[in-house]
Design a protein that fits this description.
This protein has about 220 residues and is α/β, with parallel strands linked by helices. The protein contains 9 helices and 5 strands, in the order E-H-E-H-H-H-H-E-H-E-H-H-E-H. It has a 5-stranded parallel beta sheet with strand order 2-3-1-4-5. The radius of gyration is 17 Å and the shape is globular. Bound molecules: cytidine-5'-monophosphate.
């Protein structure tokens, strides 16, 4: 299997670009944010504290071995709720949680053949450092807040653009400043700023870049 990693902050376009590429390459696409969201939802449902590492780790160790993930899997659209986004970035700071989540991702990917796309925060730096292609997708916080706002409204959530921008900035800071696997581009990543582009333009740009790695 050959891995393409897509890292970057929230709402930069990783998901849309990743899903589009996986359709074109007809390959497995793993949205690791959904995995962290699923873990956060387990912790919230259990009533455990999001800041107690050993409790969170025990929940993950108990539940993760039974989580079945297949192509296109979205555990539940409810996992996209802002409360879960916030909780996911809190439990994502724990080393043991990340170790288990990383192993889960590597097992899934090694069971696949052909190309595999993994979208996350540390996919190219920590989880798959030997990935063939590493992309880092970013955009300004204001643009990302607008995109996430429209997505949330489309999915039926109520939202406030200014609060959302603040929440995105806080979550990015937590992702960038954590000691373990902070959000940052791998030294060999291709960095794409999508602030001034439509999603189609970004996808075209990525496809052009991939030409040297993939036979059309
Ligand atoms: O990508 P998404 O916005 O769905 O991720 C939700 C949160 O999960 C992120 O803000 C981040 O804190 C955490 N996460 C992570 N590592 C990943 C994917 C997501 O820490 N590989």
């Amino acid at each position: 299997m050959k891995v393409i990693t897509i890292d970057g902050p929230s709402a930069a376009g990783k998901g849309t670009i990743g899903a589009n590429l996986s359709q074109r390459l007809n390959c497995f696409y793993l949205d690791s944010g959904m995995l962290y969201r699923q873990i956060a939802a387990w912790v919230l449902a259990d009533g455990a504290s999001l800041t107690e590492e050993s409790d969170v780790k025990n929940i993950v160790a108990k539940k993760l071995p039974f989580l079945k993930w297949v192509q296109g899997y979205v555990p539940s659209e409810d996992l996209r709720a802002p409360k879960i986004s916030d909780a996911a970035s809190k439990i994502g700071v724990f080393q043991e949680v990340r170790r288990l989540a990383n192993q889960y991702q590597r097992d899934l990917v090694s069971a696949s053949s052909g190309w595999v796309i993994v979208d996350g925060r540390d996919a190219g730096t920590v989880v798959f450092p030997d990935a063939v292609v590493k992309l880092f997708i970013t955009a300004s916080p204001n643009i990302r807040a607008k995109r996430r706002y429209l997505q949330l409204i489309e999915r039926g959530y109520t939202s406030d653009l200014y609060e959302l921008e603040e929440e995105i900035i806080q979550r990015d800071l937590r992702d960038q400043k954590r000691d373990i696997a902070p959000l940052k581009p791998a030294p060999d990543a291709y960095i794409i700023d999508t602030s001034e582009e439509t999603i189609d333009e970004s996808v075209q740009r990525v496809l052009k870049y991939l030409e040297k790695y993939i036979d059309a």
